[in-house]
Design brief:
This protein is an alpha/beta fold. The protein has helices at about 5-10, 40-50, 65-75, 90, 125-135, 145-160, 170-175, 185-190; strands spanning about 30-35, 55-60, 80-85, 100-105, 135-145, 165, 195-205. The protein has a single domain, classed as Rossmann fold, CATH 3.40.50.150. Bound molecules: S-adenosylmethionine (SAM).
């Protein structure tokens, strides 16, 4: 932790300027993917191993989780992971517009009580912030075993003009996407018999002006 974190922590995390995220990675990374709340980092480290040409930005305030990720980075000698070890909401306004191609939000805290819903990561204010940092046609991959939270999140995404839900049939949201890497919380859910859902949203093109001035949500809707 003491050796690796200073090297992998994204530079200048407390400042107010934009974080030039691409320059924080070795040259030649074709795009940046981000995971919010990576827990103990198995998914993030697994993706980084599979895609050495992509830069991975992981956000996680839980110190033991960060330590667990760093030991995976060390063991596999990964060069393409950077870490923000704090609340992602502090970082989002400082990332350049359209700088992230894929965003993973996996088994996020569901905050069941109605008075706590405002803490959910998928509140519309955060969806605005994700839409700003996602590139055109970028994707958000959201998974959860908490169906009330997943339904609430789906409604917020569908309501947001910047996103299109990509599902075309039931299997698109009930089955793991191809090549999926199981997370720790997903394994825990499986042990108690919970079936997760997997929701993928595409960020609409910024230039896509649509009927009535609102980007339409059905994938079959035509942009004009
Ligand atoms: C239920 S755990 C899931 C961990 C992991 N994604 C998995 O599937 O095993 C949710 C994680 O999100 C992190 N988290 C919660 N709010 C966060 C925020 N605002 N920014 C970054 N991480 C956050 C928590 O610290 C926690 O590790």
């Amino acid at each position: 932790m003491e050796r690796l974190l200073p090297k992998l922590k994204i530079a200048d995390p407390d400042g107010h300027d934009l974080v030039e995220i691409k320059s924080q990675f070795p040259a030649g990374k074709r795009s940046i993917w981000m995971e919010i709340g990576f827990g103990t980092g198995e998914h993030l480290a697994g993706l980084a191993t599979r895609h050495p040409d992509v830069g991975f930005l992981g956000c996680e305030p839980f110190v033991n989780g960060v330590a667990a990720l760093l030991s995976k980075v060390d063991a596999a000698a990964l060069h393409n992971i950077r870490v923000f070890d704090d609340d992602v909401r502090l970082l989002l306004p400082r990332l350049p517009e359209a700088s992230i191609e894929r965003l993973f939000i996996l088994f996020a805290d569901p905050w069941h009580k109605v008075r706590h819903h405002r803490r959910r990561i998928t509140v519309s204010k955060n969806l605005d912030a994700f839409a700003r940092v996602l590139s055109d046609n970028g994707t958000v991959i959201f998974a959860s075993d908490q169906h009330d939270f997943a339904a609430w999140s789906l409604a917020n995404f569908l309501d947001h003009p910047a996103y299109t839900w990509t599902a075309r049939c039931r299997a698109d949201w009930t089955e793991e996407p191809k090549g999926w890497i199981t997370t720790r919380y997903q394994r825990k859910a499986r042990e108690v018999g919970l079936d997760p859902v997997f929701l993928t949203f595409r960020r609409c093109m910024r230039s896509c002006v649509t009927r009535g001035g609102k980007v339409l949500n059905s994938p079959s809707d035509q942009c004009i």
